[in-house]
Amino acid sequence: MANVLRNLITRAPAHPDLMVALMLLLAIGMMIMPIPIVVIDMLIGFNLGFAILLLMVALYLNTPLDFSSLPGVILISTVFRLALTVATTRLILSEGDAGSIIHTFGDFVISGNIAVGIVIFLIVTMVQFMVLAKGAERVAEVSARFTLDALPGKQMAIDAELRNGHIDQHEARSRRGVLERESQLHGAMDGAMKFVKGDAIAGLVVICINMLGGITIGSLSRGMSLEEAMHQYTILTIGDALISQIPALLLSITAATIVTRVNGPSRLNLGADIVNQLTASTQALRLAACVLLVMGLVPGFPLPPFVILAALFSAASFVKVGVPESKTAPEAGVSPTGSAPAATQSQKQTVPAEALPITLLLAPNLMQAMDVGELGRCVARVSALVSADLGITIPRIPAQSANHLARSQFSVAVEGVPVEEGAIDPTKLLLDDDVANIELSGIPFWPDPDTNRIWIEQGHAAALKAAGIGHHGPSEIIALRVRSTLTRYAQRLVGIQETRQLLGRMEQEYADLVKEVLRTTPIPRIADVLRRLLDEGIPIRNTRLVLEALAEWSEREQNAVLLTEYVRSVLKRQICHRYANAHRVVAAFIVERETEDIVRGAVRETAVGPYLVLEDRQSEMLLSQFRQIHSSIARSKNQPVILGSMDIRRFVRGFLTRNGIDLPVLSYQDLAADFTVQPIGSVKLAPAKDKSPSPGGLLSAAS
Length: 703
Prior knowledge:
By secondary structure, the chain is of the alpha/beta class. It has a four-stranded mixed sheet. It has a four-stranded antiparallel sheet with strand order 6-7-5-8. A four-stranded parallel sheet has the order 13-12-9-14.
């Protein structure tokens, strides 16, 4: 047996789990078996010392997460303290003695007056129960609720920073882990504080049992007089109660220190935080010193204490108290606001292209020859314009060097796939004016016969500016290509995460509307509708109108394709304004009624959705007309629309998209009353002679 005990003691430091298990077993044993008085004194000293250690640890923490095991420590220490109370109660009632610590402590507190001892104990217990335990419990409860409520928003913020390239995957995982530990800590602390509160209540019950039971046993069983029994058992009871309540009080202060801790950017311990923040304002210290001096002059008030305090406050205002500046700086990789700072140039180049929705890739020679800062400002400017126009959030678009690109090549990638490519001479300017103006100015230029563009040497930029001739530099040229990409692929920037953020912003002003929409429409369907609107160039910045349409139609229509049509009808004023001229006139090519009937009759319902199935000759005829319309629009620089019925609109739009023709297609429900439609042509199809479709005539309109 001695060898087994010796082995356990030897192995304990290397096995902390074994030590915790032994402590819990010891606590259970203390409740059942009698404990010698010498051992009781040792356990009482350990209980008091452990509580002091916990308080010191809490004071020197940088963040609450550094002591995430506190809820478990509270449970174990509470069980141990209650078991110790049971053991001392057994000794008090059975032997009339509970060790020298309890007797000395009770005799010292009572100081010959039982009433004083009882009052002191009641005050300590009330402070512990009514103030510290109850207050810490409430703070823990509120902290747990707020932490859990804020968790989705914090996770979305991390996802947004990851998507924008401000942080990498490793940093994102690390931050998500911190959020998870925070939620677990505050949730566990909410429950652990119930142990502290229950411990205080148990202390009140135990003192009544010890005092009444001890006086009864002493006077009836031990032959003691009533006065003698009251004196002896009151000393033991008060000593036992206080020696138990003081560690509980220290534990309550420890828990309250943890749950009330607010982390600032400096991430210092509590003492340094308090001193730094109290001495941060010299005006506040000096004003407080003046007030103290005035109070010292009040008749009857002792002057020396106020003078001393005023001198201390004045001295603190002239001497910087706190930690060195290097320690108060935010940690590397974290800004003072708690978010990651913008990546440095070297970090930007190491971010993988597929990690960002939109990426601008430059050939190495372009990266060296161009002003990357100016390029970034131009791209940011066009991103802001697209964002304001469409009502979406455009992520940061970094310029990255790509060795696989040929000399002077650039590429715009969407989700890692190049969608816009070109070549540019960084020493040339692009004319953005009438060619006659530059001919009259005498500035040399070079026309490009392939693209009909006019190029000018960059050295003539000052002369062009002086002559008022419009032109674009290399950064502006690339930025315009980026803008084109953003406009065409705006729907790729809106997903479930962005939709949730949009609803979160709208909820601040239209909480009831958002609640009604979410009651009938899941977020993925809302995101699908927003993407379909953006795919056709319809802004979603009028979010309230979109949500009202969804609230009205979602219960009756579950199909996102048809639901989008109803949302369009609510946005008809915005749609007409987008395509109308200065006189509020919308120029339109009308799809004739017979053509609509042909398209309507060619729609086939399948298991994967409706499809448009046109006869091959009809498909070629329709495509030829749309190409002629598109080329005429390009020459005139006007913006006519294709106008047809609501049920065939999306099929015509799908036909155009599949054939690479970018023309807006409106339905009659998209027309607002305060705009005028001016027909400028028609779209006509002849009936098919052969109803059997060819493979070339099978076109999806559901995408």
